[in-house]
Design goal:
mainly alpha, 0% strand
Length: 199
């Protein structure tokens, strides 16, 4: 009822290394192929995946910078963007694309680090030792694990001495209570079964 339960599935459906590599190639290729015009796509993916407010603000900033660089490029009257406005717009667009690619790769590798790929189920915390078997509902003292389990080695058996066994009169009060309740139940069942036979 209170055990570790069923192992939870990985947090997302794109956790296979091949799929992650494919998605990284796509989102790095978009800014490269478009000369930085589609750099916002990489920052949008990071914002959606990580759900971080910082990444959402970086996405908004990337979109704002792209709009600014397009305004600079629109002010250029030459065919090859050789005016100062065209050069500023193109350098800004390329540098924004490079920065978006670098941050996308950093955030993606940080989010899908090696600890996300290795998932084999529930592992108890370091140093956890289950309680001794002292009966249902009773926890016994535990000792922390300090290293690998020690293998039992044969111990010499002590020679039995001829002493009469001592009766154990020191039963815990809970056991006495349970015994008394079981005796009452058995008496009740005997009476009920006796009345049923008379019918």
């Amino acid at each position: 009822m209170h055990g570790p339960g069923i192992a939870q599935p990985p947090p997302n459906g794109t956790s296979s290394p091949g799929m992650l590599a494919f998605i990284r190639v796509i989102f790095v290729g978009l800014p490269l192929i478009s000369c930085g015009f589609l750099a916002w796509a990489a920052t949008l993916r990071v914002a959606i995946v990580t759900r971080s407010t910082l990444n959402w603000w970086l996405f908004v900033g990337n979109v704002a910078l792209n709009v600014l660089w397009v305004v600079f490029l629109a002010q250029d009257d030459t065919d090859d963007f050789s005016s100062p406005a065209g050069n500023t717009g193109m350098i800004g667009m390329l540098s924004t694309g490079a920065a978006a690619i670098a941050y996308y790769l950093y955030a993606d590798f940080k989010h899908y680090g090696p600890q996300r790929h290795v998932y084999a189920g529930y592992y108890p915390p370091q140093g956890f030792q289950p309680p001794a078997n002292t009966g249902y509902g009773y926890g016994g003292p535990t000792r922390p694990m300090t290293g690998p389990p020690v293998q039992n080695q044969p111990q010499p058996q002590p020679q039995p001495q001829n002493q009469p066994p001592q009766p154990n009169h020191a039963a815990p009060p809970r056991i006495d209570q349970v015994r008394a309740e079981l005796d009452e139940l058995s008496d009740l069942l005997r009476r009920d079964s006796g009345e049923g036979d008379k019918r």
